[in-house]
Structure formats: C-alpha cells, structure tokens
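Attaching the record inline, Q. Sequence:
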Amino acid sequence: MSIILICLAIYAFVFIYKRYVPALGSSRKYTRSDLLSIDNVQLIDTRDFQTSSKESIADMYRIPVPYLKRHYNEIPHKPIVLIAADSVEVNLAARFLKNKGYQIQGYCLLDYKKKKEMCCCEI
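Structure, as predicted:
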C-alpha cells in the first residue's frame, strides 16, 4: 500500500513540476511591439487556433501545445520566442522544445480578450 502512495506522490510531483515550475534558461524580455520588429528568431504561437488566428504576425508558426509533439520538426532551428495565453502553456512548450534541442530565447503572454499583454518575461 505504501508503494502505491509513493508512486502516486511521485507522479503528482512530476505533473505539478512540468506545469507550474518555470523552465530555466536564458533570455530577453519581449513586449507586443517587440514581436513585430525582432529579427533572427522564430515566433511560435502556442495559444489555441481560435485565439491565435485573430492576430497575425509575419513568419509566425501557430502550433498549439497539444500539436507540438506531431509538428515540432516543422519548426526551423532558430532561437524561439514563445507566444502564449498563460504560464502553463509557456512551461509545457518550453520544456518540450528544449528537450528537442531548440533554444528558447523568451516568451510573451498575450491576452486577446483584453487586447493587451499580460506579461512579457524571460525564461
């Protein structure tokens, strides 16, 4: 019985860690206006299709988090700036892409409904 509880505790710890603990790395801070002018990075929008289709930025890949496992190989190997709706999306996408060898340069959390940026931070 104690082995089952230990296994459940480990599973819960890993689940919480992957979702809520920020992925470590380097980076820069980006604002919404910076996203339009930066060069030599690949913008990846991990928000759902309904939200990301309402805003258009040139050369941006729209790949929601659930589709990353199938489509990550279509992303060019350039430094990446993630665009997400919340920190959970950023954490999941950043960890996955880092494990696949991509360099995450930063991220920006955008809230389409309020038409403003919630926070643009470093990873």
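The chain has a mean pLDDT of 81. Helices lie at 2-20, 32-37, 49-52, 68-71, 87-99.

More tomorrow.
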